[in-house]
Amino acid sequence: MVDWRETISVITNDGRNIVGILKGFDQATNIILDESHERVYSTKEGVQQLVLGLYIIRGDNISVVGELDEELDANLDLSKLRAHPLKPVIH
Amino acid sequence: MLFFSYFKELVGKEVTVELKNDLAIRGILHSVDQYLNIKLENTRVVDQEKYPHMLSVRNCFIRGSVVRYVQLPPDGVDIDILHDATRREARGA
Q: What is one process in the GO biological process aspect for this record (chain A) (predicted)?
């Protein structure tokens, strides 16, 4: 377990974006997220947030782990963001 | 091992990492490990209009397994030294 409170944004190999509080990780990049939610991007409407709760993501399935800048994120208007979902990773 | 050493030399330089999902991220290379996982600082996604997914991310970790290309600074490579090193490694020395 990590004892600091760090919000991270994970991009998975299937193109999903999951945001949550980093609770733990290991050598294989397996990650435990608490209070997590998925941000679903679409071109038709703003970003939808789906509540996921406590989540373990297997390292295999992780592309990018980003440190979420709380200030920048607070200034983002997710309801106005339109974008295609990210493409899945093709190895 | 050779490319691990090589990437370690590039720490502090600006690189652009293109991922296997077509996302390209530019940033200062902070560190690299044995799996060629990469940590970038002060990151910007190259096409933010198309990929606003990381707008509030300034530091990130990229898993080595999803990296397609790393674009280097022009002065980032001494080709002669790299040639010698690859030959040495191929010989198993």
A: mRNA splicing, via spliceosome
